[in-house]
Structures are given as C-alpha cells and as structure tokens.
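User: Run a structure prediction on this.
Assistant: Running it now.
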Amino acid sequence: MVLATTTSTRDTGLLDSLLPLFQQHTGYRVNVIAVGTGQAIALARRGDAQVVLVHAPELERAELDSGNFVRRRLVMHNDFLFVGPASDPARLRGVQDPVAALQTIAAARAPFVSRGDRSGTHLFEQKLWKLAGSQPPAPGGWYIEAGQGMAATLQMADEKHAYTITDRGTFLAWQSKLELVPLVEGDTLLYNVYHVMEVATAGSGARALADFFVSPEAQAFIGKFGTSRFGRPLFVPDALADTTDRPTVQPSNR
C-alpha cells in the first residue's frame, strides 16, 4: 500500500524507524511518498495512495466532509517556530506573537523563505498572513518560495541567511547542519497537529496501517523517538491521551 505523508515525518527519520515495526507484525509493505500535505491529500484523492499522515487541520476537515476520507484520527503533535540567522536583522527576538513576527519581517523586507508548496507549513504561513490582514507577497526580492520540503527549505534559508517557519521536529533533526537559530516559539497558535486518514475505499491493509499509528506500540515509540539524541521527543503522541484542541506549547532550551 502507499502512504502519502508530509516531509517532516520523513526528514526527521520517524517513518524509517517506525514502519519496519508495522511491516514486521503484519507482513504488509508500505511505500512512502513524502510531499507537502496538500500534495499528499491530492495523491490519495486520485487513488495514488490509500492512507495520509498530514498536518493541515482545516484542509483535512474539508476533505473529510466531502467524503473523500474516513476515520480522521489524532496521532501526535509538535509545534512550529520561526528560525533565522543569529544576527537577526529584523529583530525578532522578544517577539512572541507569530503574526507580529511575520509583519516585522515584511516591514524590514528581511529575506524570508516560504515553503510555497501547499504543505501544512505553507498553509500555516498563509493563515498567519490572513490573520495579519494581508496577502503573501509576490515571490521575488526578499520573499523567496522554495517549492521544496522542510529540510531543503531550511538549507535554503541557511544559505541565504533568511528567516523561515519550520516544524520543530525537522529543525531539531537538521539543527547541527545549520546556523539558523530559534527566534519565535511557544505561542499556542504555533501548535502543529498530525492526523491519519484513510481514503473512503481503503482496504484492510490501509485500515491496519492507520490503526497502527494510533496503537499503544506506535504511540510509545513516537513518545521516545529522538530522546536519546536530542533529550526530548521530536513529536508528542496524542492518540492515547486526553488532549485539548490547542495544548500549551513549551519552548525549547536555547
């Protein structure tokens, strides 16, 4: 079967470590396509994937309401953060509101790299622009569209000494290769939640995979993944816990 998912679950190494457990227990083989959330959902909608693991709640709910997907279930969360060069030309340090942070970057015309790919991270950025009462700038000049995954976008921002928005898991996984530093984090608006859904016509293998992501074994694995290397998990498991729609996000130690 084919799992269409976000680049963050690939770039952090989570799926490379987690899926062999599923394959060992069930015998099902899983092919992973890691793209932006919008592309992942489009792939499944046209029949090229049977399960999606994505992080764009508003888009997910619309697809569920349309009947394209079934059994949308909470799997895990981490958070978004703004990262940028240590020199911080737009002076984001001390700004806690992500909407104000984006406005500050725009006012300073400081280099900013957008995913530009209809990913969950890109849709979140677009939400911030809407909350700011404006539209994203046209690409060019200080506003750069990467059109690539999260790891590639981080590398581009690093090369251009630019700001970007990233999920924390991918940033932690790549931080040692970058000179970017966390600048805006901790606001509840930055909460980043992942759900699993199956296409309406999914077979037994797809249902088994979706069930696996919310199983006690997978949730325990997710809760430990990254702790030995980073001192904290890259994702927080949610399927077995009572969670609110927007839990408090704790900033990292800088």
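The radius of gyration is 18 Å.
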